[in-house]
Amino acid sequence: MSHWSKGPEAILAPTSLATFMAHHWDGEPLVLQDRGSSLVEGLMSMEDLDRLIHQSSPMHPSFRLVKEGAEVPREAYTVDGVPWGTGTVDGFLDREATRSLMSQGCTFVMESVQRSHPEVARLSRLFEQTFHCPSPVNLYLTPPSAQGFQPHFDVQNVFVMQLHGTKRWTVYAPHITRPLPSQAVHGAVKPGERLFDITLEPGDLLYLPRGYVHVAHTTNTVSAHLSVSLLPNTWADVFRSLMSSLPHDERFRQAISLQPSGPAEASDTEEETFALLMDAFMQGSDLEDALDSLGSTFVSSRLPYTAGQLSAMGETEPVNLNTRLRVPAEVIWRVDSSGDRARLHFHGKTISAPWTDLQALRFVAQSDSFSPADIPGDLSPDHKCQLAQHLLDEGFIRRA
């Protein structure tokens, strides 16, 4: 049986990734059932969930309570003025109040749980590596016979992964086809045509492309599921990126006169100027530059993943030509150049090196395992070792 730690291809099995991309990614919902709870084993146990609420004391707004679409006021389940070192902090979870409210049907929601749970962080990175878009993960813990939200739709694609208990989902036709964040509706919407009604068990998966209206209810058990959100880039993002260069062209900074009383009628001169500017926009726009910019933003905004730096600080043996090194499989990276400098970007960090190191950086980033002696290019042995040592110290590579 496949396991979540092998990434989306295993999580989607028996549906292939190619089939998913062709028919579901920006298309139709997908339901996968009867695959067994071993698929999500080790991801987030009930003991983990119990510790999360009753021992770790998360702080608002990292979590919240909701019931049938209504937000519970945070004052009802948090504590302010908790002593912390030389000061105090606000928004600590009130364990007894939270447990009492959940017993009354409230759902515990923890957003961006990848920031606080190592295994969920790994899950998020696996999705980001596959789909090349931000993949934050929310946790939903709902008591028996309860409903957290009214019928609604999301403006991101969502993988629902059932961890514990069961939950019944009703899915309806899209309210808006492929909605953008600016088209979000906060609150309930009126459902349209019902597409299907299913009950998810541990190991089951429901994929909902953005726009599909849905509502969920627990059965007679406590339910816990993770929602992996996928925030895809769209053509609207491409055009926004292209438009960001317009202020650099003086012609687009020319003032125009409005006709506030309306309806507006463009003069022949304005029509001609508009046509010339549209032509200038098309001639001056580069699709590959826009895609490059979006890719760069994606890499630079990923959560830090530089484990091993504390260990590296304590190492006394320097890297030599035969030291075996590796790039952790979960690192999301990008290599480019600017002027006379080569740059390596990964998880919010940027390492700058001489332009002559560009080939070496690409080799290292693409290698499963290597030693400095393997690095190509006209670089001295000392320089290869120094470069590898620097990448090790910065957390991009580790000793194999």
List keywords for this structure.
single chain; 400 residues; alpha+beta; Jelly Rolls; Outer Surface Protein A, domain 3; 3 domains; eight-stranded antiparallel β-sheet; three-stranded antiparallel β-sheet; 11 helices; globular
How would you sum up this structure, described in words?
This protein is of the alpha+beta class. The protein folds into 3 domains: 4-230, Cupin (Jelly Rolls); 235-255 and 265-287, no CATH class; 309-399, Outer Surface Protein A, domain 3, CATH 3.90.930.40. Helices cover 28% and strands 24% of the residues. The chain is built from 11 helices and 20 strands. It has helices at residues 8-12, 17-23, 46-54, 95-103, 118-131, 235-243, 268-284, 287-300, 309-313, 358-366, 381-393, and strands at 30-32, 63-67, 70-71, 78-79, 82-84, 87-89, 92-93, 107-110, 137-142, 157-164, 167-174, 194-200, 205-208, 212-218, 223-230, 325-326, 333-338, 341-346, 349-354, 398-399. An 8-stranded antiparallel β-sheet has the order 1-13-10-15-9-8-2-3, covered by helices on one side. Strand 5 (82-84) and strand 6 form a beta hairpin. The longest helix is centred in the C-terminal third of the chain and has 17 residues, at 268-284. It is globular and about 65 Å long. The relative contact order is 0.10.
Describe the structure concisely.
The chain has 400 residues and is of the alpha+beta class. The protein has three domains: 4-230, Cupin (Jelly Rolls, Sandwich); 235-255 and 265-287, no CATH class; 309-399, Outer Surface Protein A, domain 3 (Alpha-Beta Complex).
